[in-house]
Amino acid sequence: MEETFWEAGAAVVADRLGGQRLAVVILGESTLWPVVERGIVAAGGEVVTVLQVAPVWSVSVEDHAQRVYTALTTGKGAEGIEVGRFQGTFDLLVVLLAIEPGEKTYWLGLQRELAKQFKTLNTPVVVASPSGAGSEYREAWGDVPVVFLEGADSLLGQLALVYAVQQREPVSLSLQEAAKVAQKMLADLLAGP
User: Model's pTM, two decimal places?
Assistant: First the structure.
C-alpha cells in the first residue's frame, strides 16, 4: 500500500527540483533519511553531501556545532560526525531531526547553535521533523529564516518537503498545512502544463 502511495507521490514531485544540489545533515538516529532521499531524487534533486550527527557529550554544543559546520564545508568528519558523502558546494541545506526524548535538551541546544552557524552559509535551509515535534524544535532556529516542516515521516509531509525545497521561502508547515500543499501540487499535476 505504501509503495502505491509513493508511486503516486513520485509523479506529483517529478522534476520539481531540476538538478538542485542539496546537502543533508541528519541529527540523531533518523529513520526519515531513506524516504527523504527517495523524494529528493524523484523530484530531480541531487544529494551531494550527507552528514550523520550523533551527540558528543565530551564537548560543548557550541563546539559540536562548529565541528558540524566544518564538516559541512570541508567534508572532514570528527567525533560524532560521519561524512557519508561530500561533493563540495550545494544550493540548499536540509536538516533532518530525530525526536529522541531522552536527549531533547542536547538536541535543542545543538540546533540553536547550528542555526547561528548555518546563518553564515547564505544558503536556504529546510528543517524537517517527524510528526509530533513540539513547537520548541521550530523555536530552536530563532530568527534564522528556515523552512520548518513537521510531519516529514508521512507521505503528505514528504510531498510538502519537496514543495518547500522548491519554494525556498521561510515558512513553518504543520502536517495539516502540508496536506494543503500536497493538494495544490496534485491539482497542478492534473491541470498539466
Answer: 0.80
Handedness of CA 97, 147, 90, 63 (dihedral sign): negative
Residue in the block written with cell 502544463: 193
Across 117-134, average pLDDT:
82
- Going across the sheet that includes 146-150, the strands are 81-86, 46-53, 21-27, 92-97, 125-129, 146-150, 171-173
Q: Hey, is 124 helix, strand or coil?
A: coil
What digits encode the pLDDT tens for the residues 30-78?
777 887 787 778 778 889 999 999 999 999 999 999 999 999 999 999 9
* Domain spans, the chain: 13-188
Alpha helices, DSSP H, located in the chain:
2-13, 33-42, 61-74, 104-119, 135-139, 155-167, 175-191
Assess if CATH 3.40.30.10 describes domain 13-188: no
d(CA 128, CA 126): 6
Q: Which of 10-14, 88-92, 174-178 has the lowest mean pLDDT?
A: 10-14
Helix, strand, coil percentages (3-state) for the chain, rounded to 5, are: 45, 20, 30
